[in-house]
Amino acid sequence: MVFGIEACKAPTPNKMNTEVKRVEDSIKNGNLEAAKQLIAQHMSEAKDSDMYYRWLSVQNRLWYAEMKVDSMTAVSDSIYHYLSAHENKHNSVRTLLWAEWYKTKAVFLSAILGRPDSALIYNEKAIRLLETLKDQNEFRLTAMTNQAFFNQQSGKYDKSVECYGKALEFADSIGKSEEDKTPLLLGISTVYTYMGDYERSNYWWSRCQEQLPNMIKSDQFIYYNDRGNDYYFQKKYEKARDCFTQAASLVKGDESKSWDYYTSLTNLGEIYVCLGKADSARIMLHQADSFFHKVDFQPLLYYIETSRVKLELLEGHPQQALQMIRDSKLADPQIPAARAQRLIATKQVMRETGNFSEAYEASHHLHLLSDSLQRAQISMQFSTKLMEYEHDKKLIEQDRIIEKTRADKLLAWGLFAIALFTVAILIVLILFFRRRHKYNELQTRQQIVMMRMENIRNRITPHFIYNALNHEVLAQMEGRKVDLNSLTQLLRRGVEQAGIFQTTLEEELNFVDYYIDIEGRQMGPDFKYNKEIAEDVDSNKVYLPSMIVQIFAENALKHGLRPIKPEEGKQRKLTIRVSREQQATLVEVMDNGYGLQSRTDVTGSQTGSRVVRQTIQMLNDSNKNKITFGIGNWKQDGESGCRSWILLPDNYNYQLNYQDS
Fold it and tell me: Which one is predicted more confidently, 273 or 476?
């Protein structure tokens, strides 16, 4: 009887979850005193150590809300030691405690230490444990939302979108309302902002705005702060200022929201610098700087210092700005956006103070970072489009299965005449869906090909043109002859061919000539370029996918010839040879480098070859006569190197929706 009475007193899992939800709601609504009282009450009433540490874990959420870092660390250490001492004695409460500990550790690593990559590892462990537990849907949804947020912080925006999508599906499966999904809507809106896809971000921000009147204050703050960032990245500074001002007003005077308030002041300080309002900027940045120095939060101090450097420039004090950069002791937070802002400010400071070599170095690093970010954005947008395509394909397949099941029921219970009619309707629907699916797949394939080719162009245009310009500037400074004609022609032809999928061999070779002319001058006097076109080849009537020969030439220069050290009496040769073979045109790009197997860095070559292979494979699906290509070593008359080639059949059709009979 005693054991029975004690069992009745013990809290059930559902009751425990309800009490935890009461505490979480109190924290979200800013009623921290009520949360403290509830936690203290349940800790004093705990019947065993498991329950005590369960409520101690809940208390850690309160310490995080109040940003009491030392208390968080102490509680986490206490829970970890308890769980480690009972590691071989598993039960559902301790499994939940481990999941809580992993999630809290992840939040601490991300929010306090600025290490989202490490946070992803711990949070993934929490998700795996929660998948084994029943009645923990709320907690599991929170962990899934955190995983999407940590991916966003790590710059893995395509992965973040995927995680938010899974979290939204899970929220729908457990019956969450649109209001309950507010954190997910805010998160996916922010991801598209940082991805630079403002069309999609605007769609999701509009959905968030519909829920704004129903949001709790903390979510309203997130909306205005992150929406302000969206406007900032689009350089709509007045709208950004209004959002950040609204965000600051929501948390002003609330001691538990000090971090949020001074983060808003940091953002406002940067906006006022961009708007040219130096006095307002100085006030905001001074207040934010004082707070974050007090709590020693390095990432935001780095942002603030960059804004203060820009402020000194705005007020006409370049020497003070230079001194700030020289005296800076803040570590690079390894956040691409922060590094880009610092490099922009550094470049301007160095120019205005006459430190041109350092300005050049900052500009060089900025362009490298910009190129990397641009390629990453294109890659992530591409991955997101593929993910959306797969999702739509899955929905269409599910709809088809549902329709088929419904039709089967009608066939089973209907009369023979109705059954025949239903079969006819079903066939029409299947044909319609297949045709529509085929059309959507065709459109997507075409977009994939265009995006791949655009990615190759983006590898050439910004980074290559920047380097070429710098070489010409250095040549001018050293008194050598400056010739921008080839670069001008390359720019003009690049713009003309930006949206062209196919081109003539004549246009392609002209484009390659200008490219090699610029690169060849950088290679040195021992570089020799030959172009051999057979007399029976009319290059104006031969068509091929644009940029193909350029990819071959770039790989030959970058991986075949450039690694070779100049030797007296020996030339580094690049040869392009065009000839006829039966009813096709053969284009060969040959270098006399070390050969394919000797290259130490073939990543770029593999990337270019993969794009060529996948593009041609898609085109070959629509043609009877196939384009073939390859890459390998050659050896002839005592010379050797690498040879890339492509064989172009006559009367080849470059339309993806074309089917060769």
Answer: 273
